[in-house]
Structures are given as structure tokens and as C-alpha cells.
## 1
Amino acid sequence: MTMLAGIKNFMGINDAHKHDLRRRLNLVTVAETHIVWKTRLGHHVYGTIREPLDSAPLGQDSLCQLGSWIRGSVLAPFCDPEVHRELSEAHEHFHQCGDHIIAKLKAGDRKDAATMFENEYNHSLRRIIQALTIINKQLQDV
């Protein structure tokens, strides 16, 4: 074992721990899950899907896997505090905004729902993906 093998990187995590985290966490999958939710909601916003609107799972950010990672202790040990805060805020806003969009659709306000979808909702998803990309890069640097 070389002397460098036990040295921790600037985030305080050694390479073996990062490798284990990368194996256990699939950040790409949680990003894709949120992209799928956005796509599905977009179909509702633009009227290209015929299924019941239900905001319960969308309005609560702690119900999805990423939300449980953010609120739990999974991400915090290897995530820069500023990136963690950005991810947490963006993720919470993503789910709250989705809930508001569904409420607008149920009230028949498709125009405001589309505006919110195209602006705030898209922006929240971009922020989530950017933060996850930074975290994933940290885990890849082994």
C-alpha cells in the first residue's frame, strides 16, 4: 500500500470510500427519474396525455430516492456543503413547483401552468442536474 493510498482528498473522503459510494449510489438514475417526471408533467401541461392528475407523489420531495438521500446522511459526507444546499433547494423547489403546476391544471389554468413549467420547473431541474453532475464528478475522481 502506497503512502498516498490512505490520504484523503480535499472533501475528506479516501478513494476506497468514494469507490464504495459510487457503487452504491446511482446519481444518473435519480437524475433520469426527475427528467421522466418532468416529461410526464409536460404531457399534462400540453394536453398530450390522458391520465388522472395526482400531485401527492410529486409535491413531496422527501418521497423520492434523491429526497431521502438529501435529507438523510448519504450525500452529506462527500458533498461540498454549498453543492448540498443547492441540490436540496432545487430539489424541494422542483417538487413544490410540480405540485403548483398540477393545481393550476386542475383549476383549468393551462396557460399559467405552461409558463411555470417552461420557466421555474425547467430551471429547478437544471439546478438538480448541475449539482448531481458535480457530485458524480467528485465520485469519479478516484
Note: The first helix runs from residue 15 to 24.
## 2
Amino acid sequence: MSDTDRTFTGLLLYDGDCQFCSAASTAVRQLEAVGVVPWDDPAAQAFLEAQFGSTPFALFFVDGDAETIWAGRAAARELCDRAGMPVLVQDVVDENYERIADAIRSVSGLEREIDPYHDAYPLTEDAAALFDEVASRAETTRPPME
């Protein structure tokens, strides 16, 4: 599949076991050309392994066209920006990402620790080669791009 034939150009990899994260992913599905895939999906796991050499547990946003993957705090900020959130909201999310994540884990009863990945990273060739496979697993409530 060529880049111009992609259904999704952006992918959110999120914790599908967390009720809050799942609810938040519903809002992200409203963004045009963005699909969501649970972190533990086998295609997402292979993608993360290709990108990082391991499968870090964090929030990830991948833009196939920009060949960039944002992680943790940077992913949350990028998603806020793309959703058109005011800068104040983006700053609050950015500055309080760990506290928000800890509170959600505590309320949800989840015990898995979030790995400290909080930057934008260039997409590796190996991960980019798997983008379309992960995208084929994505869900959205918007119609695919034409």
C-alpha cells in the first residue's frame, strides 16, 4: 500500500485495559485520519519492538507521513494540539502528565508502571515498514479517507 492509499496517517497506541484511556481513545477517533490500536495488540507490539528494540509501556502517537512517533507527555501534547485544544489545556496536560497517569492508574487499579518515554522520535525504517500493518488493526468512528 502506498502512503497516498493509507486509511490512517496517524495512530494512537493506548492502554486498552485502562477504562479512562479507552474513553479518551474514543475522543481521538474523532480526529480525521487517526486510528486507535490497543498497546497490547500483536501488531502494535511488533511495531514498538521495531522502533525501540523493546515494547515500552506508554502512550504513543505515530504520524506515518511525518515519520515521527511521540511518546508519553509528548504524545498527549501532540494529540491536544491536533484536537485544537487551547494552549492552556496543552500546558496543563504536559506539565501534569505523570500525576494524571498515576491518578488514573490508582483509580483504575492498574499496577503496570509507565515507562519514561516522553519525547518525539524519528520513525525507524523497520517501524515504518510495519506502519500499514498496525493501521490495518486500527479502529475509528470516522469514515476512512478517500
Note: The first helix runs from residue 19 to 28.
## 3
Amino acid sequence: MKKRSTRNIELKNNIFKHVSDNIKVYFALLIIFVIGLILGIIFINNSKQEYQDEITTYIMNFISSLNGNNVIEKSNLLKRSIKINLFTVFSLWVSSATVIGIPIVYGIIGYRGFCIGYSISSLIATLGRTNGVILSFSSMFLQNILIIPSIFIIAVSGIKLYKSIMKDKRKENIKMEIYRHTITSIVIGVISVCSSLVEVYLSSNIVFFVIKYI
């Protein structure tokens, strides 16, 4: 028990130190993410009526199919979700070692925020504020509390690698940073797969339940 307690304390201290050492980078990523979120909301609210009507039709047809107990191929959804998440992780891993790596990393974070803002705004525009927020929360919250912090971590790791390549010319240090970044990326890749499993097999079941009452 003492060993486990000591490990937990060490883990908490390491996490706290990592965040405190990189607080400026995390804050910058958070700002980019929020900007993307806001842009996603603005995009829906300022899009043409025809486009809004298409979104409304799509969402209402989807809800009707669920209410009609139509079977959704969860295996296909899982493959698609895993592909998207792993592609994001891979892109963050690769872009960190390129000359234009920083803009790409920030762009990926901003795009992720845009997608979430777009989805939330679409549901609210279609179902109204209360039902839209409820369905958004039930369909997106659980997987995103895993994947969003994870891509922030790999983004910070990638930015550190980029700075090391640009500033530190010692090969041994760069190799260590690449190794560290790669290990981080592999761990985040595993977490992203877990996020996809949560999305398909947990969040989707919650959505089935919630849709019956909205």
C-alpha cells in the first residue's frame, strides 16, 4: 500500500511539474482551441439558410432512425473514430519534426475545437437550446475528456521537440527528445483508441436513451 501511495504521489508531482513547466504552451493551445470552438459556432450561425436546412434535415433524420430502433453499425463507427483519432495523433507526431511544425500543431488543435463548436451549434440550432445542450453533452463529453487533454499533451510534447531541433544542435539531446516524443505519441495513441471505444459503446448508448425523452 505504501509503495502504491508513493507512486501515486510521484505521479501527481510529475504531472504538476509538467503542467507548471509548460503552462504558457498549454495556455496558448487552450486559446487556439477556444478560438476554433467559437469559429465553429459562428460558422453555423452565419451560414446560408439552405445549408442550415440541410443540417436540420440530417439531424432530424438521424434522430428519427434511432427512435425507429434502426440498427447502427457500431463496428464501422468504431473504425471511423479510431482512424480519425489516430490520424490526429500521427499528424501531431510527424509535424513536430518539420520546419513548419508549430503552425500545423496549432492548426490541428484549432480544427478540433472548430469541429466541437460546429457540432454543438448544429444540435442547438436544430433542437433548441435545452435539448441541443443535453444531446451535445451526452454524445460528446465522455470521449472528449479523454481525447482533448491527450492531444494537448502530445502537442506540448511536439512543440518541445520542435524547439529542441531548432535550438539544440547536439544529436544526443535531439535523439532523446525524439524518443520521448515517440513514446508519448504511442501512449496517446492507445488513449485515443480508448476514447473511440467510449464514444461508440458508451456515449452512443447514452444517446439512444436521451433521444427518447427529447
Note: The longest helix spans residues 171-211.
